[in-house]
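Appendix C. Worked example: GNAT family N-acetyltransferase
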Amino acid sequence: MTDVQIRIADWHRDNADLRRIRESVFIHEQGVSPEQEWDSDDATATHFLAYEGDFAIGTARLLSDGCIGRVSVLKDWRGLHIGEKLMMAAVEEAERLGLKQQFLTAQVHAASFYERLGFTPISDEFLEAGIPHLEMLRNSK
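Step 2, the predicted output written as structure tokens:
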């Protein structure tokens, strides 16, 4: 594997890559409906893309209130710390914007991943898109 780079993406210019990754992970693999996946927040969110060379392999988004979401890495690139790099880019951007808290809804199976990044569960389990989730919070230092 070559070096993976993370950059802030533009929703309009990078739309094909953002959609390709999220459709593959959330809609095709996890069975999330397109109506649940695509929302009006995409147009105003800060999006991140992970690249291996010039091929986009992962994405995440940050909302103006500090909510991080839509963290997704294509199947063939999982286990290579790309999700961690995407999350750290989102956290760093949130902090740069003065957002002292970041929060997310984590799929329960991924909660320990987010805990390693400083997020703490703040809710009981609930279903979102038919998948068990937890709300999690991180306070900036």
